[in-house]
Amino acid sequence: MTTAATEFEPDYVVSPGEILEEILEARGMKKRQLADRSNKSTKLISQIIAGIAPVSPDTAIAFERVLGVRASLWNNLESRYRLHLAKQDERARLASNVAWANRFPLARMKKFGLVGDARKPIVEDILDFFGVANTDAWENVYLQEQQRVAFRASQAFQSSPYAIAAWLRWGEKHAESLDVPAFDRDRFKTALNDIRALTRMTPEEFHAPLKELCSRSGVVVLWLPELDGTRLSGATKWLGPEKVMIQLSLRHRTDDHFWFSFFHEAAHVLLHGKKAVFIDDASNTTTKEEDEANLFAQNHLIPRSHWARLTRTKAFSRERIVSFADELNIAPGIVVGQLQHAGLIPYTHLNGLKQKFVWADQRYN
């Protein structure tokens, strides 16, 4: 008996056994007859129809010869059906992890489009965002490892590790899509001198040149708003041996904080190892690495010899600060911020010299 091969394209997931049963009924063929012609047992044919036994490759070939339905179709039906069953089982297991999912700052993650696929349960959506198979894998990659290494350089663990991991992953996904040359240490050091002059520009003006100068050196710089449960100013993370990410939050939305955070993270790139992830939050940290990064940022923005001259006289008028900033070719808000941090002027004084930043994407404001 020969029959032309027939394509079956079901628009929903069915077991190959259901299709097989329909074919047998349509042709008036008994299970025993198919078993004899296929050189298989009647028990196996019954188990395939019941969805208990799979259609193996050799059985698919036999069905092609006997029924004229291509072996590849039987294999595809079997694969799709087993995958469907596996996903159902996984979905049932993941349903018990809703409490885990609620540890993340879901409201803002949804607002910013990080999660919120209506076709998926929230646990699956979060796992897809992080690129891990299950919650155990997430714990290993994003919690245990980052608590041991990434958070050791700051007191960021006082914030939510789930929110911090989500914010970092957001940055990683942006950075991974960008192609940059291999990291060039000397080129980056030179770029920092040019970047210093950008501090006098508005965000609209410095946005492109800042990213370009860093990109040429193998450094991806980006800024993303905080998520609930974080108190982050910035982070530095190597995405590979030759690519590094500087991520900033614009937490205080003023130029002095933004530029100090940038040069602070640049210090981590130049002075510290590639294995650690440096996460800098609102805590007053006292680690060696953080102290070195703070000193680097201070000196790069205002060289200590100029700082000594400025602070020799304790009269800090608006005019004097503007003149001093013009001399150094930096934003006057940076001078105000450092004077405030040093306790030389109150935090309520001269804030009008600081440039305030507003997110271009209104969702972030």
Automatic annotation (TrEMBL):
It comes from Tistrella mobilis. Pfam families: HTH_3 (PF01381), Peptidase_M78 (PF06114). Residues 20-74 form the HTH cro/C1-type domain. This is XRE family transcriptional regulator. It comes from the Bacteria. InterPro entries: Cro/C1-type_HTH, IrrE_HExxH, Lambda_DNA-bd_dom_sf, Rad_response_metalloprotease. GO terms for molecular function: DNA binding. Belongs to the short-chain fatty acyl-CoA assimilation regulator (ScfR) family.
